[in-house]
Design goal:
single chain, 4-stranded mixed beta sheet
């Protein structure tokens, strides 16, 4: 697993905290928290088998871009209190993003069972398979080649009977 991936939900909460603090201080339309948060929520997911993840670098890029907008509003005079406040916000959020734990997969198993169908003339046994975490059904022949559930990201460690 790529250790550059973090939880999208956790990242959104951290960035929301920073943008709300800036909004509360300056009330500048270009600093609206909603625009940044909605951008993060709709940012494409990391190419990963762990759902709801986002690249740590993508989050840092969003924060840096927001900081650029903030500096264009307040200026970059390092002696100003506003600039010091903004730099404190930036350093705080960047530190939090760097410390955000790596996204982990849940453990799971393929649950298999057989359905018996009788039509009076013959009996047919149909194999079925589902993820133990999200109950999404898969073809059992395809599932035997999957190490994780493509729907919820659970790390598949084996099989169990229903």
């Amino acid at each position: 697993m790529n250790d550059d991936l973090i939880s999208r939900t956790g990242a959104v909460e951290m960035v929301k905290e920073m943008t709300v603090a800036a909004w509360n201080k300056w009330h500048e339309p270009t600093l609206s928290p909603e625009s940044v948060i909605s951008g993060l929520e709709y940012m494409p997911a990391a190419k990963s088998d762990v759902p709801d993840t986002i690249s740590r670098q993508d989050i840092m890029n969003v924060v840096n871009e927001y900081m650029s907008r903030l500096c264009s509003v307040i200026g970059t005079d390092e002696d100003r209190v506003e600039y010091s406040f903004a730099r404190g916000l930036l350093h705080g959020i960047m530190g939090s993003i760097k410390e955000q734990p790596i996204a982990q997969r849940k453990p799971g198993k393929w649950v298999k069972w057989t359905e018996k169908r009788e039509d009076g003339q013959s009996t047919e046994y149909i194999p079925h398979c589902k993820c133990s975490e999200c109950s999404t059904q898969f073809d059992p022949y395809a599932a035997q080649f999957m190490d994780y559930c493509p729907h919820c990201g659970a790390q598949i460690t084996g099989w169990c009977a229903d």
